[in-house]
Amino acid sequence: MTEVIQDEILKHEPYYWNVILNNDLLWINLARSDDSKPNWVVTTLSGEIKEVFFGPKKIRTVRIHEGFLYEAETNESGETFFVGYSLENIKDTDY
After folding, report:
1. Model's pTM, two decimal places?
2. Domain boundaries in the chain?
């Protein structure tokens, strides 16, 4: 199963990824050299791609709780803060 998922993900040319399991779906954050391609992929555990969209570019210290993705972000000034994104609306936000 891991190989199937990895083969599907590599079709999207990431140079790293973060993976979050939520409700039997994998939410995969891809870092890309090409910003014109979507950087999020949602798959089933068997590797079937359900959604591909633009979302937050880079995530860290991630947790999903009650329909929200929570993570730490650092701004241009070096300040770190806590951000929450609704999973329902994450693909509709301009990043």
Report:
1. 0.58
2. 2-92
